[in-house]
Design a protein that fits this description.
Blueprint (H helix, E strand, L loop, with lengths): L14 H12 L4 H25 L11 H8 L2 H6 L6 H21 L4 H13 L2 H16 L3 H30 L5 H5 L8 H25 L10 H17 L15 H18 L1 H12 L1
Length: 294
């Protein structure tokens, strides 16, 4: 954004989403309506991706029905609320899950990490916290692996592919806007820990409206055998990102938009425990699923 005769100001934090909507405007499509349509498409695609992610869990091929995480995620009120807003939230979360699926495929087949690194780079270009989430998933997945030696080169390649596009965007921002960080960062910065208190209240409200049961079931999924791929990555990433949300003060809008990016991961962890509970007690598993959906 800019005023006549003044230097431009970077008044957005969703670069890649803004570029996509600029292309929409260039072909003379209605931007608000198209943005809402795209957001809805990515929300539907996100539910499908979670099903694919579950289907690829070979250790759970007999009981880990893809329908479990798909139903749990699709029934989440926050997903329904933000699916049609036209914001970058669904696109961003879609990229995180897609990158995680590519990472799982690459690890299983001992491929180099180009595809997952590229998708996580797109997430980082969509929202700045994509650097945190993508970086956490890449790092913890590597540390969780039992084959550090054979996977080290793939890990390095994945990191390079992941970091290079955001670094290029960083230098472009400096050259065009004259700032290393977007103007929204300075507009929302306060001194001390003034944001922590509202951030804690935001996190508490999320826990009381369904987040707590997801965290508990994901934690319990660590103890089931066999584990799903990346359960430690799912749990640690969700905890660290929640701490980040608290640190930045949460969000003033309803529907817990800030926690949507980790919802598919928590749903996967919770679904793993529920699916194993089916073997012991179908009624107990059904009760757990109902608690998550309430």
């Amino acid at each position: 954004v800019y005023n006549p005769a003044q230097a431009p100001v970077e008044g957005y934090t969703n670069f890649l989403w803004t570029v996509m909507l600029s292309a929409v405007a260039a072909v003379l499509l209605p931007v608000p309506l198209t943005a809402s349509f795209l957001s809805t498409c990515f929300a539907v695609g996100l539910i499908i991706l979670v099903g694919i992610w579950a289907y690829r869990q070979e250790e759970f091929s007999s009981t880990f029905s893809p329908a479990i995480p798909m139903v749990l995620l699709g029934s989440a009120p926050m997903l329904a609320l933000w699916a049609t807003t036209g914001m970058e939230t669904m696109f961003f979360t879609f990229l995180l899950v897609l990158g995680s699926i590519f990472l799982t495929i690459e690890e299983r087949n001992e491929w180099i990490g180009i595809l997952s690194g590229l998708v996580f780079a797109m997430a980082a270009l969509t929202r700045p916290d994509g650097l945190l989430l993508g970086g956490l998933i890449i790092l913890i997945s590597f540390l969780e692996s039992s084959e550090w030696g054979t996977r080290f080169i793939a890990f390095i390649i994945r990191c390079i592919v992941f970091l290079l596009p955001p670094l290029m965007h960083l230098f472009w921002r400096k050259s065009y806007y004259g700032q290393w960080l977007p103007n929204t960062f300075f507009a929302k910065t306060v001194e001390g820990n003034q944001l922590v208190t509202p951030g804690l209240a935001y996190f508490k409200a999320f826990l009381l409206t369904g987040g707590l049961i997801l965290f508990i079931l994901t934690f319990l999924a660590i103890f089931v055998r066999p584990r799903i791929d990346g359960i430690w990555t799912i749990l640690i990433t969700s905890i660290v990102y929640s701490a980040y949300v608290i640190w930045v003060g949460g969000d003033w809008m309803p529907g817990f938009r800030m926690f949507i990016p980790i919802m598919p991961f928590l749903v996967m962890g919770a679904s793993a425990f529920i699916s194993k509970s089916i073997d012991a007690s179908p009624k107990f598993a059904l009760t757990l699923g109902a608690l998550v959906m309430i």
